[in-house]
Amino acid sequence: MDDPKWKEEFSKYSQRKDNEKNGVSEARFRDYGFLKYWFRGIEKFAPWVRKIHFVTSGQKPEWLDASNPKINLVDHKDFIPKEFLPTYNSVVIERYMHRIPGLAEHFVYFNDDFYIIRATSPERFFKNGLPCDIATFHYNPSWSQWYKRIKNNIRIINRRFDKKEVMRRDHDKWFCKSYGSRARWNYLLKPYGKFITLRTPHNAQPYLKETFREVWEYAGKELTETSVNRFRCVTDYTPELFRTWQICRGNFEPYNTYSDTKMFPLMIKPKQAVRAIRNQSYSLICLNDNVHIRNYDLVMSNIKDAFESILPEKSSFEL
Fold this sequence. Notes:
The chain is of the alpha/beta class. It has helices at about 5-15, 25-30, 35-45, 90-95, 145-160, 165-170, 170-175, 185-190, 210-225, 240-250, 270-280, 295-310, and strands at about 50-55, 70-75, 105-110, 115, 125, 130-135, 205-210, 255, 260-265, 285-290. The protein is about 35% helix and about 10% strand. A 3-stranded mixed sheet has the order 4-10-9. α5 packs parallel to α10.
Protein backbone atom coordinates (compact mmCIF):
# COMPACT_ATOMS: atom_id res chain seq x y z
CA MET A 1 0.00 0.00 0.00
CA ASP A 2 2.99 2.35 0.36
CA ASP A 3 3.99 2.03 -3.31
CA PRO A 4 2.74 5.18 -5.17
CA LYS A 5 2.74 3.43 -8.54
CA TRP A 6 0.76 0.50 -7.13
CA LYS A 7 -1.74 2.89 -5.53
CA GLU A 8 -2.27 4.74 -8.78
CA GLU A 9 -2.84 1.54 -10.72
CA PHE A 10 -5.09 0.12 -8.00
CA SER A 11 -7.23 3.26 -8.01
CA LYS A 12 -7.52 3.14 -11.79
CA TYR A 13 -8.92 -0.37 -11.82
CA SER A 14 -10.95 -0.40 -8.60
CA GLN A 15 -13.00 2.82 -9.04
CA ARG A 16 -15.25 1.83 -6.17
CA LYS A 17 -15.60 2.44 -2.47
CA ASP A 18 -13.86 0.37 0.16
CA ASN A 19 -15.81 -2.89 0.12
CA GLU A 20 -14.84 -6.10 1.91
CA LYS A 21 -17.09 -8.18 -0.33
CA ASN A 22 -14.98 -7.33 -3.36
CA GLY A 23 -11.63 -7.55 -1.63
CA VAL A 24 -10.99 -3.81 -1.99
CA SER A 25 -10.68 -3.20 1.73
CA GLU A 26 -7.61 -1.29 2.92
CA ALA A 27 -7.00 -4.08 5.42
CA ARG A 28 -6.41 -6.53 2.60
CA PHE A 29 -3.45 -4.59 1.24
CA ARG A 30 -1.98 -2.42 4.00
CA ASP A 31 1.47 -3.19 5.34
CA TYR A 32 2.08 -3.08 9.07
CA GLY A 33 5.77 -3.99 8.87
CA PHE A 34 5.71 -7.56 10.16
CA LEU A 35 7.07 -9.28 7.06
CA LYS A 36 10.62 -9.33 8.40
CA TYR A 37 9.38 -11.49 11.27
CA TRP A 38 8.14 -14.03 8.74
CA PHE A 39 11.67 -14.29 7.34
CA ARG A 40 13.17 -14.40 10.83
CA GLY A 41 10.74 -17.15 11.79
CA ILE A 42 11.65 -19.23 8.74
CA GLU A 43 15.37 -18.91 9.41
CA LYS A 44 15.15 -19.65 13.13
CA PHE A 45 12.30 -22.16 13.30
CA ALA A 46 12.39 -23.82 9.85
CA PRO A 47 16.03 -23.70 8.69
CA TRP A 48 15.37 -26.74 6.48
CA VAL A 49 13.51 -24.55 3.95
CA ARG A 50 15.53 -24.63 0.72
CA LYS A 51 13.91 -21.87 -1.35
CA ILE A 52 11.53 -18.97 -0.73
CA HIS A 53 9.58 -17.77 -3.74
CA PHE A 54 8.58 -14.26 -2.66
CA VAL A 55 5.65 -13.15 -4.83
CA THR A 56 4.71 -9.48 -5.32
CA SER A 57 3.45 -7.26 -8.13
CA GLY A 58 6.97 -5.93 -8.55
CA GLN A 59 7.72 -4.51 -5.10
CA LYS A 60 10.69 -5.33 -2.88
CA PRO A 61 10.97 -4.26 0.76
CA GLU A 62 13.92 -1.91 1.15
CA TRP A 63 15.31 -4.01 3.98
CA LEU A 64 15.22 -7.31 2.02
CA ASP A 65 18.52 -8.74 0.79
CA ALA A 66 17.52 -10.08 -2.61
CA SER A 67 21.01 -11.53 -3.10
CA ASN A 68 20.32 -14.21 -0.48
CA PRO A 69 20.52 -17.49 -2.44
CA LYS A 70 17.40 -18.81 -0.71
CA ILE A 71 15.22 -16.03 -2.14
CA ASN A 72 13.59 -15.99 -5.55
CA LEU A 73 11.82 -12.68 -6.17
CA VAL A 74 8.75 -13.42 -8.29
CA ASP A 75 6.69 -10.82 -10.13
CA HIS A 76 3.08 -11.56 -11.07
CA LYS A 77 4.04 -11.30 -14.72
CA ASP A 78 6.51 -14.16 -14.25
CA PHE A 79 3.74 -16.74 -13.87
CA ILE A 80 0.29 -15.20 -14.50
CA PRO A 81 -0.80 -14.80 -18.14
CA LYS A 82 -0.48 -11.15 -19.15
CA GLU A 83 -4.11 -10.87 -20.26
CA PHE A 84 -5.18 -11.18 -16.60
CA LEU A 85 -2.80 -8.52 -15.25
CA PRO A 86 -2.86 -6.47 -13.20
CA THR A 87 -4.88 -8.48 -10.72
CA TYR A 88 -5.82 -7.66 -7.12
CA ASN A 89 -7.67 -10.92 -6.63
CA SER A 90 -5.70 -13.33 -4.45
CA VAL A 91 -7.55 -16.41 -5.72
CA VAL A 92 -6.43 -15.64 -9.27
CA ILE A 93 -2.82 -15.27 -8.15
CA GLU A 94 -3.02 -18.52 -6.18
CA ARG A 95 -4.40 -20.68 -8.98
CA TYR A 96 -1.31 -20.01 -11.11
CA MET A 97 1.23 -20.77 -8.37
CA HIS A 98 2.35 -23.99 -10.01
CA ARG A 99 3.76 -21.92 -12.89
CA ILE A 100 6.32 -20.12 -10.70
CA PRO A 101 9.75 -20.85 -12.23
CA GLY A 102 11.75 -23.24 -10.08
CA LEU A 103 8.89 -24.15 -7.73
CA ALA A 104 9.45 -27.55 -6.13
CA GLU A 105 7.06 -30.46 -6.65
CA HIS A 106 6.39 -30.32 -2.89
CA PHE A 107 5.76 -26.80 -1.63
CA VAL A 108 4.08 -24.94 1.24
CA TYR A 109 1.96 -21.89 0.50
CA PHE A 110 2.00 -18.99 2.98
CA ASN A 111 -0.06 -15.82 2.90
CA ASP A 112 1.74 -12.75 4.22
CA ASP A 113 -0.20 -12.94 7.50
CA PHE A 114 0.89 -16.49 8.36
CA TYR A 115 3.87 -16.84 10.70
CA ILE A 116 6.01 -19.64 12.15
CA ILE A 117 6.64 -18.88 15.81
CA ARG A 118 8.32 -22.02 17.14
CA ALA A 119 10.53 -24.84 15.86
CA THR A 120 8.82 -26.77 13.08
CA SER A 121 10.05 -29.83 11.17
CA PRO A 122 9.48 -30.76 7.51
CA GLU A 123 7.27 -33.61 8.74
CA ARG A 124 4.77 -31.02 9.95
CA PHE A 125 3.93 -30.38 6.30
CA PHE A 126 4.85 -33.58 4.44
CA LYS A 127 4.94 -37.21 5.51
CA ASN A 128 5.67 -40.18 3.24
CA GLY A 129 5.89 -37.70 0.38
CA LEU A 130 2.33 -36.46 0.92
CA PRO A 131 0.91 -33.21 2.35
CA CYS A 132 -0.27 -33.37 5.97
CA ASP A 133 -3.89 -32.28 6.18
CA ILE A 134 -7.23 -32.69 7.90
CA ALA A 135 -10.15 -34.16 5.93
CA THR A 136 -13.29 -33.09 7.79
CA PHE A 137 -16.55 -31.57 6.61
CA HIS A 138 -17.72 -28.20 7.85
CA TYR A 139 -21.04 -26.43 7.58
CA ASN A 140 -20.92 -22.90 6.14
CA PRO A 141 -23.95 -20.57 6.21
CA SER A 142 -25.33 -19.86 2.72
CA TRP A 143 -25.31 -16.08 3.28
CA SER A 144 -21.52 -15.97 3.53
CA GLN A 145 -19.85 -14.37 0.49
CA TRP A 146 -16.90 -16.70 0.89
CA TYR A 147 -19.24 -19.71 1.04
CA LYS A 148 -20.72 -18.76 -2.32
CA ARG A 149 -17.24 -19.06 -3.80
CA ILE A 150 -16.63 -22.34 -1.98
CA LYS A 151 -19.84 -23.70 -3.54
CA ASN A 152 -18.30 -23.12 -6.95
CA ASN A 153 -15.41 -25.39 -5.92
CA ILE A 154 -17.71 -28.07 -4.59
CA ARG A 155 -19.67 -28.27 -7.84
CA ILE A 156 -16.47 -29.21 -9.65
CA ILE A 157 -15.46 -31.66 -6.90
CA ASN A 158 -18.84 -33.43 -7.03
CA ARG A 159 -18.66 -33.58 -10.81
CA ARG A 160 -15.26 -35.27 -10.67
CA PHE A 161 -15.37 -37.45 -7.52
CA ASP A 162 -17.78 -39.95 -6.03
CA LYS A 163 -17.95 -39.12 -2.32
CA LYS A 164 -18.87 -42.58 -1.08
CA GLU A 165 -16.13 -44.18 -3.13
CA VAL A 166 -13.53 -41.65 -1.91
CA MET A 167 -14.46 -42.09 1.75
CA ARG A 168 -14.55 -45.87 1.42
CA ARG A 169 -11.16 -46.01 -0.30
CA ASP A 170 -9.48 -43.70 2.24
CA HIS A 171 -11.62 -44.54 5.26
CA ASP A 172 -8.77 -44.36 7.76
CA LYS A 173 -7.76 -40.93 6.49
CA TRP A 174 -11.28 -39.50 6.78
CA PHE A 175 -11.91 -41.03 10.19
CA CYS A 176 -8.53 -40.51 11.80
CA LYS A 177 -8.80 -40.44 15.60
CA SER A 178 -6.53 -37.39 15.79
CA TYR A 179 -9.30 -35.22 14.30
CA GLY A 180 -11.33 -35.57 17.49
CA SER A 181 -14.69 -33.79 17.56
CA ARG A 182 -13.88 -31.96 14.32
CA ALA A 183 -14.75 -35.17 12.46
CA ARG A 184 -18.35 -35.26 13.68
CA TRP A 185 -19.75 -34.13 10.32
CA ASN A 186 -17.85 -36.96 8.64
CA TYR A 187 -19.86 -39.48 10.65
CA LEU A 188 -23.15 -37.63 10.21
CA LEU A 189 -22.72 -37.18 6.46
CA LYS A 190 -21.24 -40.59 5.68
CA PRO A 191 -24.48 -41.84 4.05
CA TYR A 192 -24.94 -38.58 2.09
CA GLY A 193 -23.94 -38.89 -1.56
CA LYS A 194 -22.40 -35.47 -2.18
CA PHE A 195 -19.43 -33.50 -0.86
CA ILE A 196 -20.02 -30.35 1.12
CA THR A 197 -17.44 -27.78 2.26
CA LEU A 198 -14.34 -29.12 3.97
CA ARG A 199 -13.07 -27.51 7.14
CA THR A 200 -10.21 -25.23 6.05
CA PRO A 201 -7.55 -24.19 8.57
CA HIS A 202 -6.58 -20.64 7.63
CA ASN A 203 -2.85 -21.14 7.63
CA ALA A 204 0.16 -22.48 5.70
CA GLN A 205 -0.96 -25.13 3.22
CA PRO A 206 1.24 -27.92 1.80
CA TYR A 207 0.64 -28.84 -1.84
CA LEU A 208 1.80 -31.18 -4.54
CA LYS A 209 2.40 -29.27 -7.76
CA GLU A 210 0.85 -32.23 -9.57
CA THR A 211 -2.47 -31.32 -7.94
CA PHE A 212 -2.52 -27.99 -9.76
CA ARG A 213 -1.75 -29.64 -13.08
CA GLU A 214 -4.60 -32.12 -12.60
CA VAL A 215 -7.15 -29.47 -11.63
CA TRP A 216 -6.16 -27.28 -14.57
CA GLU A 217 -6.46 -30.22 -16.95
CA TYR A 218 -9.96 -30.96 -15.68
CA ALA A 219 -11.34 -27.46 -14.98
CA GLY A 220 -9.12 -25.18 -17.03
CA LYS A 221 -12.12 -23.63 -18.79
CA GLU A 222 -13.70 -22.45 -15.55
CA LEU A 223 -10.41 -21.26 -14.09
CA THR A 224 -9.47 -19.35 -17.23
CA GLU A 225 -12.87 -17.69 -17.58
CA THR A 226 -12.83 -16.41 -13.99
CA SER A 227 -9.21 -15.23 -14.15
CA VAL A 228 -10.56 -11.97 -15.60
CA ASN A 229 -11.91 -11.09 -12.13
CA ARG A 230 -9.41 -8.41 -11.05
CA PHE A 231 -11.13 -8.21 -7.66
CA ARG A 232 -12.93 -10.85 -5.65
CA CYS A 233 -16.19 -11.97 -7.22
CA VAL A 234 -18.90 -14.51 -6.39
CA THR A 235 -18.00 -16.46 -9.54
CA ASP A 236 -14.47 -17.13 -8.25
CA TYR A 237 -12.90 -20.51 -7.57
CA THR A 238 -10.73 -20.44 -4.46
CA PRO A 239 -7.55 -22.35 -3.46
CA GLU A 240 -9.79 -24.74 -1.52
CA LEU A 241 -10.59 -26.30 -4.91
CA PHE A 242 -6.99 -27.51 -5.17
CA ARG A 243 -6.80 -28.56 -1.53
CA THR A 244 -10.11 -30.47 -1.69
CA TRP A 245 -9.05 -32.13 -4.94
CA GLN A 246 -5.80 -33.21 -3.29
CA ILE A 247 -7.71 -34.74 -0.39
CA CYS A 248 -10.24 -36.48 -2.66
CA ARG A 249 -7.38 -38.02 -4.63
CA GLY A 250 -6.09 -39.45 -1.35
CA ASN A 251 -2.86 -37.49 -1.71
CA PHE A 252 -2.52 -36.53 1.94
CA GLU A 253 -1.53 -37.91 5.32
CA PRO A 254 -4.08 -37.30 8.10
CA TYR A 255 -3.02 -34.63 10.55
CA ASN A 256 -5.10 -32.50 12.92
CA THR A 257 -3.87 -29.14 11.68
CA TYR A 258 -5.74 -27.38 14.47
CA SER A 259 -3.51 -28.98 17.08
CA ASP A 260 -0.71 -26.50 16.42
CA THR A 261 -2.18 -23.67 14.34
CA LYS A 262 -4.43 -20.77 15.23
CA MET A 263 -6.01 -17.83 13.45
CA PHE A 264 -6.44 -14.61 15.43
CA PRO A 265 -8.95 -12.07 14.12
CA LEU A 266 -7.24 -8.92 15.39
CA MET A 267 -10.56 -7.08 15.57
CA ILE A 268 -11.67 -9.25 18.49
CA LYS A 269 -8.59 -11.15 19.76
CA PRO A 270 -5.57 -8.83 19.76
CA LYS A 271 -4.53 -9.66 23.32
CA GLN A 272 -4.79 -13.38 22.69
CA ALA A 273 -2.58 -12.98 19.60
CA VAL A 274 0.08 -11.10 21.56
CA ARG A 275 0.04 -13.73 24.30
CA ALA A 276 0.29 -16.60 21.80
CA ILE A 277 3.34 -15.06 20.12
CA ARG A 278 5.15 -14.35 23.39
CA ASN A 279 4.40 -17.82 24.74
CA GLN A 280 4.98 -19.52 21.38
CA SER A 281 1.75 -21.38 21.96
CA TYR A 282 1.45 -22.67 18.40
CA SER A 283 3.73 -23.62 15.53
CA LEU A 284 1.82 -21.47 13.08
CA ILE A 285 -0.44 -18.47 13.53
CA CYS A 286 -2.46 -16.20 11.29
CA LEU A 287 -2.93 -12.52 12.19
CA ASN A 288 -6.13 -11.54 10.41
CA ASP A 289 -6.31 -7.79 9.77
CA ASN A 290 -9.57 -5.84 9.62
CA VAL A 291 -10.46 -2.20 8.96
CA HIS A 292 -12.52 -2.13 12.14
CA ILE A 293 -9.69 -2.86 14.60
CA ARG A 294 -9.94 -0.48 17.54
CA ASN A 295 -6.75 1.28 18.65
CA TYR A 296 -5.02 -0.05 15.52
CA ASP A 297 -1.63 1.57 16.18
CA LEU A 298 -1.54 0.24 19.76
CA VAL A 299 -2.54 -3.27 18.66
CA MET A 300 0.18 -3.34 16.01
CA SER A 301 2.77 -1.95 18.42
CA ASN A 302 1.96 -4.68 20.95
CA ILE A 303 2.24 -7.38 18.28
CA LYS A 304 5.56 -5.98 17.11
CA ASP A 305 6.87 -6.07 20.68
CA ALA A 306 5.72 -9.68 20.98
CA PHE A 307 7.55 -10.65 17.80
CA GLU A 308 10.67 -8.86 19.03
CA SER A 309 10.55 -10.90 22.22
CA ILE A 310 10.99 -14.19 20.29
CA LEU A 311 12.74 -12.97 17.12
CA PRO A 312 14.99 -10.06 18.11
CA GLU A 313 17.92 -10.82 15.80
CA LYS A 314 18.07 -9.86 12.16
CA SER A 315 17.90 -12.73 9.73
CA SER A 316 20.27 -13.25 6.81
CA PHE A 317 17.40 -12.06 4.61
CA GLU A 318 17.77 -8.52 5.98
CA LEU A 319 20.28 -5.93 4.84
